[in-house]
Task: inverse folding
């Protein structure tokens, strides 16, 4: 059985072969000398060709692990990344167990953030929004598959998704919004070429969505509640400045496992005056 392929690296080849056969890594090792059936060989070759052309492995196999669970993914959503797990960890630190706290996840995509939080805090009530109907369909499927029953999904662009609940308040708002500058050279490289552009890039040098969330969250946060946002590797200082200017307290940034300031946030204080632009 072929575990290497000259067109792609060995790790990718193993994943694609495992998917082709529907077996485990242990099975591949135990049957390494077996020949592939013709139909399997054809399917495997097609996947290898797509990977060699740059298509992400996660889209080819239809799944990606995030926070210890397997999430279905498709080209309708961003591929979950390890650094985004920091958002989940920071949220969980602020959500006591066995309390019915309310959390809003803006731009949920595959639902990996909201669902991970919901499964770790069963008494919390999660609301997850996205403007993409295709993304929400996938997120709902993930919630059902993983047994997350405490997540409600709403369609709309940022806080517009709450049009029926404009007065609703949350104990925490979390988001991994688009933050790459439009036209950034990285958008034409690697996996990013295949991921949805609307979930990756934003105007105003990548700050349009971050700014909209900072400004809009004030109307939906309880006093002392946290807003947490993922951002680019060089955007932490600007995000902190924006949070302070908008009247947030306890403003700070947190580093991911690579040592990069990846998440910034602050708490809402409704005793502070709303800044006048």
Result:
């Amino acid at each position: 059985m072929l575990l290497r392929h000259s067109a792609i690296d060995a790790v990718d080849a193993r994943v694609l072969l495992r998917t082709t056969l529907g077996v485990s890594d242990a099975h591949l090792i135990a049957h390494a000398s077996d020949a592939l059936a013709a139909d399997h060989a054809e399917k495997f070759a097609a996947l290898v060709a797509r990977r060699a052309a740059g298509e992400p492995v996660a889209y080819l196999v239809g799944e990606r692990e995030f926070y210890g669970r397997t999430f279905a993914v498709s080209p309708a959503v961003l591929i979950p990344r390890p650094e985004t797990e920091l958002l989940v960890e920071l949220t969980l630190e602020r959500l006591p167990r066995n309390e019915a706290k309310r959390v809003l996840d803006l731009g949920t995509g595959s639902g990996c953030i909201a669902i991970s939080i919901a499964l770790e805090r069963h008494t919390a009530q999660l609301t997850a929004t996205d403007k993409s109907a295709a993304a929400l369909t996938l997120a709902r499927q993930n919630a059902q598959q993983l047994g997350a029953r405490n997540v409600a999904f709403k369609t709309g662009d940022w806080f517009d998704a709450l049009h029926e609940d404009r007065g609703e308040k949350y104990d925490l708002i979390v988001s991994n919004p688009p933050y790459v500058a439009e036209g950034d050279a990285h958008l034409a490289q690697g996996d990013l070429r295949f991921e949805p552009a609307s979930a990756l890039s934003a105007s105003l040098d990548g700050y349009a969505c971050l700014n909209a969330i900072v400004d809009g969250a004030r109307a939906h946060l309880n006093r002392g509640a946290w807003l947490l946002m993922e951002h680019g590797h060089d955007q932490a200082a600007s995000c902190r400045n924006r949070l302070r200017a908008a009247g947030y307290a306890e403003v700070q940034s947190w580093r991911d496992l690579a040592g990069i300031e990846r998440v910034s946030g602050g708490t809402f204080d409704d005793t502070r005056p709303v800044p006048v632009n």
